[in-house]
Amino acid sequence: MTEQATSFLSDRITSLAESQTIAMAKKARELAAQGYDVINLSFGEPDFQTPQYIKDAAKKALDDGFTFYTPVAGYLDLRQEIVNKLKRDNNLDYKPENIVVSTGAKQSIANVVMSLVNPGDEVIIFSPYWVSYEEVVKLAEGVPVQVKGTIDNDFVITPQQLEDAITSNTKLVMYSSPCNPTGSVFSKEELEAFANILAKHPQIFVMADEIYEYINFTGQHASMAQFDFIKDRVITVNGFSKGYAMTGWRVGYIAANKEIADACDKMQSQITSGTCSIAQKAAVAALKGGRGSAEEMSAAYLRRRDLVLGLMKEIPGIRTYVPQGAFYIFPEISSYFGKSYNGQVINNSNDLSMFILNDAYVAVVSGDAFGADECVRFSFAAADDKLVEAMRRLKESLAKLV
Ligand SMILES: Cc1ncc(COP(=O)(O)O)c(C=O)c1O
Asked: What range(s) does the Aminotransferase class I/classII large domain occupy (predicted)?
């Protein structure tokens, strides 16, 4: 469509960026449809099927007649299971009234931002960050303020950086740990240092996105909400997509103080209402089944991380580090900027990602989507042979750049 033809659209939608991870996946699918053997490492999802016991619970929910509208904040039994999980895994005390279940953690995050951020409020986003954080803040007319970690420090930002970014307009701090795209994990001590700073600023809330909690190779997951002196201002976001390989089911949740939970409930009541009845019953079964299946998948991701890391280290010009969680590696690739192949100059991470897709038929996501143009994101949630082949092709293609 021409610019004129789209002018009837709101400023809000026109200024919204398309999710680059989804855009890359679309391009990769198009090439695959033309018959190219594309290895897609751009996906943000497990390559495993949802465990069978969870699927069985969904079938049972249908047979048991769970086909009606659900309470906006989620079935009580699901919220109770989430409360139990937060106690069991994180030693956090909540009641079902503190939990709001949503159509994926993505909606949980949107609910939180829409409920807390006024136009002009500043939102500190630890960078590199998950693609949707910045866009949802802009939708709320907030001002994203990026605080950037670098590969030298395994992408972990320092307490001083947080302190320096805070102003009287700061309303919210957002981060994920384990982090998408870097796989960095905050230790309890690191979170405590942030919490101590935030304790001095009672107007600031924290959105702690813990959706990769079950894919943590350090063996220790820390929650910001464990520090009682700021717990009331922490909104913990989690969900079923990653740990239980349930991306298509669309179930995420928050745990927050009741006022914020009620606000998110109200927001959601006008936009989607409660999430799918069958998916909620499946989520109850997932939690009741414990962490066994998640741990098996996590062990596979760890093995694949080491596989990819070993092969990637042999590629000249790629700077690696060791991701401690999630299923991504976010190496620095800026040494290729200024190089070219067949007259095509690589100026940024987007150019490099397109080159890798078109020459190696490997789909990755450019780092600028995550606030770090010097990097590219590779998912290692793929079969071993695909990962090996992808690294082989990558090495071959990158060697053509001079
Ligand atoms: C850091 C992070 N938060 C939230 C989400 C959203 O997850 P969901 O599938 O539950 O909407 C994702 C998905 O990629 C993610 O990577």
From this structure: 37-389
Give residue 242 CA to ligand 1 midpoint distance, Å. 8
Per the structure, the complete domain to which residue 348 belongs is given by 11-49+293-399
Closest among 323, 328, 350 to 20, alpha carbons compared: 350
State the closest ligand 1 atom to the C-alpha of 105, by its place in the atom list counted from 1: 10
Query: What is the whole-number distance in angstroms between the Cα of residue 106 and the centre of ligand 1?
Result: 6
DSSP letter at 343? Answer: T
| Residue 234 CA to ligand 1 centre (angstroms) | 18
What pLDDT digit, counting tens, does each position of 127-148 carry?
999 989 999 999 999 999 999 9
Q: Between these two residues, 16 and 96, which has the higher pLDDT value?
A: 96
Probe ligand 1: pick from 42, 112, 242, 246, max atoms within 8 Å of CB? 242
The CATH number linked to 139 is: 3.40.640.10
378 alpha-carbon distance from chain centroid = 14
338 Cα: distance to centroid of ligand 1 (angstroms):
34
- The torsion defined by the Cα of 103, 105, 110 and 115, in degrees rounded to 10, comes to 90
The secondary element (H helix, E strand) that includes residue 165 is: helix 159-165
Q: What is the pLDDT of residues 290-328, one digit of tens each?
A: 999 999 999 999 999 999 999 999 999 999 999 999 999
62 within domain boundaries: no
